[in-house]
Structure formats: C-alpha cells, structure tokens
Design a protein that fits this description.
This protein is of the alpha/beta class. 50% of the residues lie in helices and 15% in strands. The protein binds adenosine-5'-diphosphate and deoxycytidine diphosphate. Adenosine-5'-diphosphate is lined by residues 16, 18-24, 166-167, 170, 209, 212-214, 217. Its EC number is 2.7.4.25. Residues 1-26 are annotated as: Disordered.
C-alpha cells in the first residue's frame, strides 16, 4: 500500500505475542515523536464485545461473518488518551473483561472480520500519516498484512514467564501460573489460525524485551524510527 514512506508519513509496525510490550512500547514511541497510536487488538476486542453483547454465537463462524459489518468501531489515536467506541459507546473498560479476552481469538479468526478491520486500519494509517506525519501500529498482522511495507517493522518477544508476570501485575492477580496458561492458549490460537496468523518474518527486527525496561525498549525503537527517517524511508 502507499502512505508508508516519508512523503506521506512514517509507519512503525509492531507485532508480537500477548504481554511482549507492544501497547506500552507503541504508546511511548508515539508520544516521544508526536505521532499517533493504533491499538488494533482493541478493534478485535471491540467487535468481539459487540458479538457477545448481541448474543451472536462466537463459535459459529458463519454467524460472526454475517454480523461482521454491523457494529461501527471508532478509534481515538492520541497515544496519551487512546479511545475505542462501538456505535458511539465508550467500550474501553468493557473490552478488557475475561469474557471478551476468552472469545477474541475465535472472532479474530473469521476472514470477514479481518477484512473489515484491516480495511479500516489502513484508512486510519493513511489519514493519520497525512495529518501528523507518523503512526505506530501494533497487533498480530501489522508487519505481514496491514502494513508490510512499513519502514520500521518489529517483532517484540519476551519469555513466557516474563509476559505472565507482567500481565499478572497489571491485573493485580497473584495466580501467575493461571495467567501464563491463559496467555499460552491465546498465543496458540492466534498463531495457528488459517488467516493472518501471528508470524515472525525475516524482515522484521526481533526485540526480546525480557531483560529490558520499558524505557529501554522505547528508546531502541525511537532510534530505529529516527534512523529510518534519516535514510529517507
Ligand atoms: N520492557 C518491559 N519491562 C517490564 N514491563 C513491561 C515492559 N513492557 C511492557 N511491560 C508491562 O507489561 C504489561 C503488558 O504490556 P503491554 O504493552 O500491554 O503488552 P502487549 O500489548 O504486547 O500485550 C504492561 O503492564 C506493561 O507496563
Ligand atoms: N492485529 C491483530 C490484533 C489483535 N488480534 C487479536 C488476537 C488477540 O488475542 C486479540 C486481542 O489483542 P490484544 O492486542 O488486545 O491482546 P493483548 O491482551 O494485549 O495481548 O485480538 C488479531 O487477531 N490481530
């Protein structure tokens, strides 16, 4: 797609498994350079929330496909205050429940859902690049499908233990083993689905964040972004 080069703004594409640090890193980089931030996982969570709220059987791919175009999802891309709305309702909290988290991989595996959300994500990228000159986009298929020509492509990783520790701390849970099992289940589903699975490609830079602080990771990514801009990408 166009819109990823310097003339129209820079795209920083970040993929990786749950808890690797995508959201916090993407927000930090966008803030550091006054760019926008797009949390594509929040879009899949939002459509899942709508399906569950409207009694759509999320295990029935045909039913999910048929309903996929009904909810209107609106994203706010300010990295200091990102927002997500469905049909005008703020769902920032509602999309983080265990019910949504448990069903989001099934909904994300439906091609019609992905087709619709990827199209919207590309529109947002083009709009924000034209408006402010850059956007940091994070998810599972950003480096491979949504913005494969992005000048900076990153695959964030961290050990399963570190990811579970971080997530447990975030949700104030002492059951790190249960958190690790839930993450492993979702990672497996997201990496093995037929359409746009989470994949690490050779042209994406791997960044293992296990032993790094968030500030260190943000600093490394800002450096890569600055280098790409200097090279004129
Ligand atoms: N490098 C890091 N070191 C320590 N904690 C981190 C690091 N990166 C992220 N975190 C923390 O880990 C948790 C999960 O990070 P998040 O950015 O939501 O990951 P993801 O978007 O990949 O699921 C958050 O509480 C975040 O503050
Ligand atoms: N580009 C994307 C982003 C997320 N998804 C799906 C798969 C993920 O399990 C869910 C939720 O993503 P989210 O980034 O919120 O996940 P985390 O809990 O932050 O790890 O959405 C996707 O299929 N494609």
């Amino acid at each position: 797609m166009s819109g990823q080069g310097r003339a129209e703004g820079i795209v920083i594409a970040i993929d990786g498994p749950s808890g690797s640090g995508k959201s916090s890193t993407a927000k930090g980089v966008a803030k550091a350079r006054d760019w926008r931030y797009l949390d594509t996982g929040a879009m899949y969570r939002a459509i899942t929330w709508w399906m569950v709220s409207n009694q759509i059987d999320v295990t029935d791919a045909a039913a999910v496909a048929q309903a996929a175009s009904r909810p209107v999802i609106t994203m706010g891309t300010d990295p200091s205050a990102p927002t997500v709305q469905v049909d005008g309702t703020d769902v920032a909290q509602a999309i983080r429940t265990d019910e949504v988290t448990g069903n989001v991989s099934a909904v994300s595996a439906v091609p019609e859902v992905r087709e619709r959300l990827v199209a919207r994500q590309r529109e947002i990228i083009a709009e924000e690049c034209a408006a402010v000159g850059g956007i940091v986009v994070e998810g599972r298929d950003i480096t491979t499908v949504v913005a494969p020509d992005a000048p900076v492509k990153l695959f964030l990783t961290a050990s399963a233990e570190a990811r579970a520790q971080r997530r447990s701390k975030e949700v104030h849970s002492s059951d790190v083993a249960a958190t690790q099992a839930a993450l492993a289940r979702r990672d497996k589903l997201d990496s093995s689905r037929a359409v746009s699975p989470l994949t690490q490609t050779a042209d994406a830079t791997e960044l293992d964040t296990t032993g790094l602080s968030l500030d260190e990771v943000v600093g490394l990514v800002v450096k890569l972004a600055d280098e790409a801009q200097t090279r004129g990408l």
